[in-house]
Design brief:
Strand 16 and strand 17 form a beta hairpin. With 527 residues, the chain is mainly beta. It folds into three domains: 94 residues, no CATH class; 259 residues, 6 Propeller (Neuraminidase), CATH 2.120.10; 140 residues, Lipocalin (Beta Barrel). It has a four-stranded antiparallel β-sheet with strand order 3-2-1-20, with no helix packed on it. A four-stranded antiparallel β-sheet has the order 4-5-6-7, with no helix packed on it. A four-stranded antiparallel β-sheet has the order 8-9-10-11, with no helix packed on it. It contains two helices and 35 strands.
Length: 527
């Protein structure tokens, strides 16, 4: 019995909104409704997955946020829109200030134009992001389209701006190989990091303009799909690199930790659906040192025992949002691969060989099953339609891509496979209606979920340690959308015995909108 471990996991998910690491400012995608509108500002707790609107800026295309050291927060608008009918407004530096009509809310005031003077051949120019260094230097990323010898070319530039007026002063980089989406300065080293659409995480020398790849591998083992156009990064007060990514066709807004030494990522388990952000920046001024042996408020971004991801292999002809891993959008996409940095296993496979069609949607999760020498893999597809509409499926297959076992959902919108966890050869999978447990590819147990709490709602699952002494790891269930004691979206956590299928322990959220259980990961207490 390990009751202290249970309490630790539950309290980790509850957290506290008052610590510094849970104060990220986000600027919304003003096009998400299909029409140009104001940019909504959100305050985000990246540990709990909660957010609240705290203001708006009456400019549509805010793409960058930057915190001036011991000063104000600033924003930048992209400039020329790629999707009419919006009225173009050249890029400006914008100061985030209290709203005069409501001091508890934020708005923006224009500081001045960026004033980049491009050649006449440049047809499009947008600012993707800005960043202040602790030496009070301001930098901006420009993406432009021009013509060279009659050929249309896309390029990238890094500019140094006047930190007070935002006016462009010096171009440090101009090339046609890079495609930076976001930049921010490390609080520890002072280095400027960027996320490149082709190369993943890079380090940029602001004096020489030299760009160093952090991701050395072609497919970024343990890394995120680099090609999403909506990828933003920011450093926290602890020196950790936080990233946000969404795709309007496929992926809800999700948060990740990124290792600046390797470019590897760790998912925070936080999804901020239905909002989408085009900019993020931490709001706190003080840099908080991390003392070894002392836990940070949200826990250090260590790599968990099982870290897995299903990605689509790069397909250059289909660049853009539709390129992402949803065959309902991109019917030509067939190849995918599973990454597991823990065991250094990476395998590519064919969707069609697994019996998947375009209408079956994307893979939600995938992992090797067993030890480092495993020949068994599992993927989940919550929108699969083999039996009923969006019934979902769990598919086990070998290294040759041959299906070993497949379990399909049984009712419409069951969404079997909406979350999964793997511990050795044990696999736990949830749908909106039931919890399934496998040993290898064999289904060994299943239990119905409480319809009043979980039916047709988001559910998360994770293995814990053995708690009831039966030699098997127990299962954690998180229902962030559960209504408990009349409190909507208060959330619920349950510990379920792996053998008994009984609920051993439960804890409910204490306030509406708390969304307890939105992220699950089992960790031992720090002694």
């Amino acid at each position: 019995m390990k009751p202290k471990s249970i309490l630790f996991t539950l309290s980790l998910a509850l957290g506290s909104a008052g610590v510094a690491e849970a104060r990220t400012l986000g600027a919304s995608n003003c096009w998400e409704t299909g029409e140009a509108g104001p940019t909504i500002l959100y305050q985000i707790d990246e540990r709990l997955g909660t957010y609240a609107p705290i203001g708006e800026i009456d400019i549509c295309d805010i793409t960058g946020l930057a915190k001036r050291h011991r000063g104000s927060m600033y924003a930048v608008n992209a400039g020329t829109p790629f999707e009419p009918p919006a009225t173009p407004m050249e890029p400006h530096l914008i100061r985030i200030v209290p709203d005069p009509s409501d001091p508890d809310r934020l708005t923006g005031e224009i500081v001045g134009p960026i004033g980049i003077e491009n050649d006449p051949e440049v047809s499009h120019s947008i600012i993707s992001d800005i960043a202040y260094s602790e030496n009070d230097e301001l930098y901006a990323i420009e993406y432009f389209i021009t013509r060279i010898d009659g050929e249309r070319r896309a390029g990238n530039a890094l500019w140094r701006l006047n930190p007070d007026t935002g006016r462009a002063e010096h171009r440090i980089i101009q090339d046609f190989e890079s495609r930076f989406l976001s930049i921010d300065f490390s609080h520890d080293s002072g280095a400027l990091y960027g996320w490149d659409v082709h190369r993943g995480l890079v380090e940029i020398d602001t004096t020489t303009g030299v760009v160093r790849d952090v991701n050395e591998e072609d497919y970024f083992p343990g890394g995120l799909p680099p090609s999403s156009p909506n990828f933003r990064i920011t450093f926290t007060p602890y020196g950790d690199l936080l990233a946000s990514m969404f795709d309007p066709y496929v992926l809800p807004l999700s948060l990740y930790w990124i290792d600046t030494a390797t470019g590897e990522y760790r998912t925070t388990g936080v999804s901020l659906e239905p909002i989408s952000l085009l900019a993020i920046e931490h709001m706190d001024d003080e840099r908080i040192p991390f003392a070894p042996g002392r836990r940070r408020p949200s826990g250090p971004p260590r790599w968990p025992d099982n870290l897995f991801l299903v990605e689509c292999l790069p397909c250059p002809p289909c660049f853009g949002p539709a390129k992402m891993c949803d065959p309902r959008v991109n019917e030509d996409w067939d190849r995918a691969f599973i990454n597991d940095p823990r065991s250094e296993i990476a395998i590519s496979f064919s969707r069609a060989a697994l019996g998947m069609t375009a209408k079956d949607g994307f893979f939600k999760a995938g992992a090797p099953v067993g030890d480092a020498e495993t020949e068994l893999f599992v993927v989940t597809a919550p929108l699969a339609n083999a039996k009923r509409e969006d019934s979902g499926a769990v598919i086990f297959f070998n290294a040759a891509g041959k299906v070993i076992a497949r379990i399909d959902g049984e009712t419409d919108a069951e969404l079997l496979g909406q979350d999964m966890d793997v511990r050795g050869d044990l696999v736990a999978v949830v749908s909106t209606q039931r919890l399934l447990r496998f040993r290898g590819s064999k289904l060994v147990a299943q239990m119905p979920l409480d319809k009043a709490l979980f039916a047709q709602r988001q559910i998360h699952v994770a293995f814990s340690d053995d708690i009831d002494g039966d030699g098997q790891p127990e299962i954690l269930l998180g229902g962030p959308e559960a209504t408990v004691k009349g409190l909507p979206f208060a959330g619920l956590l349950q510990v379920v015995g792996s053998k008994s299928g009984e609920v051993i322990s439960a804890r409910a959220g204490t306030q509406a909108g708390q969304r307890l259980g939105d992220a699950l990961e089992w960790e031992q207490p720090v002694k």
